[in-house]
């Protein structure tokens, strides 16, 4: 992420009416030098890169959305919320986090038994979250998270998840092995449809189709 990349990357209004900096697919390995952007964007799109650690942000109070789908993130900087104090929308499907203790404002793919606790853990840790894994957080989910992590049993569960984590079944190599191949022309059509999508749910559907090697209805 050097001067040339950050100053040439496209910044535009996205379907959510946010000023979005497009850093998709540049093989970025490390987040750095974002002070060069002068915090003029509401959304930073890091989809389809090679980022392993989420952190190293300057103070960016204007950033409300981070899109980090399909990276290699396994670690999160503990001071992340300090530098992104107004973060509300967080997308981090298809990454490599395996312990809930690593989670602050992140979304990951756990096995069926653990995914609900993962979602509630994030809601509990970041009460300001409004959108989690492309879904709006409801008031009933906030209440559910409060109940789950309240009282003696809730505190013990929170401590257990934070200190020891929870084993995940997500394996990036397994996904690569099983993913079907679609032509470059079809990939370009799907990517163009993603750019023109009007809702987060539509973006999610198209992203998942692209990653899974499936040709969606356009």
TrEMBL record:
It comes from the Eukaryota. GO terms for biological process: mRNA splicing, via spliceosome. The keyword Transport does not apply. It holds the Pfam family LRR_9. InterPro entries: Leu-rich_rpt, LRR_dom_sf, RU2A. The keyword Repeat applies. GO terms for molecular function: U2 snRNA binding. Its main location: nucleus. PROSITE patterns: LRR. Keywords: Leucine-rich repeat, Nucleus, Repeat, Ribonucleoprotein. Belongs to the U2 small nuclear ribonucleoprotein A family. This is U2 small nuclear ribonucleoprotein A'. It comes from Boothiomyces macroporosus.
